[in-house]
Amino acid sequence: MADYKLILPAMGEGVMEATIISWLKNPGDMIEEDDAVVEIATDKVDSEVPSPVSGKLKEILVNEEDIAKIGDVIAIIEVDGEVAQDSTETIKESKPEEVPQETISELEKPLTEKTQQDFSSSDKFFSPLVKSIAATEGISLSELEQIQGSGIEGRVTKEDILKFVEDKKSGKTTPAATKASTPTPSKPSTPTTVMSGEDEIIEMDRMRKIIAKNMVSAKQIAPHVTSFIEADVTNIVLWRNKNKDEFLKKNGQKITFMPIFIEAIAKAIKDFPMINVSVDGDHIIKKKNINIGMAAALPSGNLIVPVIKNADQYSLSGLAAQVNDLANRARQNKLKPEEIQGGTYTITNIGSFGNTLGTPIIPQPQVAIMAVGAIVKKPAVVETPQGDVIAIRHKMYLSHAYDHRVVDGALGGMFVQRVAQYLEEFDLNTPI
After folding, report:
1. pLDDT tier at 107 (50, 70, 90 boundaries)?
2. Are the C-beta atoms of residues 158 and 23 closer than 8 Å to each other?
3. Which of 72, 205, 312, 404 is catalytic?
4. Interacting residues of 325 by C-beta distance below 8 A, sequence separation 6+
């Protein structure tokens, strides 16, 4: 017998620590290779840590709600014979293996074929593992929501749902009467609500606390300036309306406006590379890769920003595939830590809420962000060979917020003007 040290792996660029949310295994439990052992939370995403070996969980070294550093030993697993042990340094420096989209689609295919159940509408958090088991076993969302979880804040663990499945098959219990397989902490599954007179006091959940902290920090660090410009996107609207059905049939992807916006931003970054930088003290770090983050709303109302790496290297159909995949998995809490790291520029679509103008906050350590407003029909003066005419055009405002420490008004203004130019010059004959 030998002891294997389970080490907290790297969670993506810039992530140095994680909070232990819930141990999915107890000391003495047998563990198979790739079994999820612990659920962790970083300041970006919740995820599960799988075991690289098979054996018995001998000892837990970091308690729930405690913080562990990347490379820390968090548990000891007893294994048969000798097993190679990765060093802490190797763990820290390792880079996540990029999985081709075709592989991801293939892996998710069996689950899709088994069930069409969508758990994204729930206000409760369910780990990817729990949702996968629920989908495989045909557990409905209403059933899942009624299971009393034994994890932190009442979260449903792997053991909870497996016990429910067993009880359901044997006819022992109903969802409402399902009990946790292990003692349930006293913490409620939802933020604490207190009535004070006619007012309602609601405690922030963990994600909201993190967002609040990051937003305050971003405003304190970077002096924000915002430039606005109105773009005529009539060609884009007409092209999409004409080709959206054929695009779906040919590429298997819906075409939204977002891939077109990202394409224009990537082109403009190539024209003005000093927008694609970060600040480290008195140094400006010019980024080689163009990694575009796109803000996505979660069912909980919170926001997350998945990142399209090397966005300038994709075709329009490739960008559409990336946008759709990341947005869908963001809503399902299936994003990997590395997929929300490494952004060099961010776009947020405030137009999806019907807003026309906005002043977005720059995510650190980036130096700029663009908000795209709602597309509205407006009368406009159009120049023709026969003279000026009044025509109905599709217009949209672009709001470009930038860090005035390193981006002056000239650069910030020229950049957003160039993005508008690329949008207005969109070719109606663009192939699908």
Report:
1. very low
2. no
3. 404
4. 101, 104
Tokens of 314: 């994709």
The full DSSP string for 261-301 is: HHHHHHHHHHH-GGGSEEEETTEEEE-SS--EEE-EE-TTS
Domains of the chain: residue spans and CATH: 2-93 (2.40.50.100), 105-177 (no CATH), 208-424 (3.30.559.10)
**Strands (E) located in 203-295:** 224-232, 277-280, 283-286, 292-294
| pLDDT the model gives residue 172 | 67
Give the C-alpha distances (Å, rounded to integers) separating 348 from 43, 177, 336.
Answer: 19, 43, 20
Which residues, at least 6 apart from 16, have a Cβ–Cβ distance to it below 8 Å? Answer: 69, 70
* Catalytic residue of the set 3, 34, 66, 408: 408
3-state helix, strand, coil in the chain (%, to 5): 35, 25, 40
pTM for this one? Answer: 0.64
Q: Is 394 among the residues known to form the active site?
A: no
* Number of helices and strands in the chain (H, E): 10, 21
Residue 325 catalytic? no
d(CA 54, CA 312): 42
At 101 the pLDDT is 54
190 DSSP assignment: S
Place of tokens 């407003």: 373
Q: What is the CA radius of gyration of the chain?
A: 25
- One-letter amino acid at 61 equals L
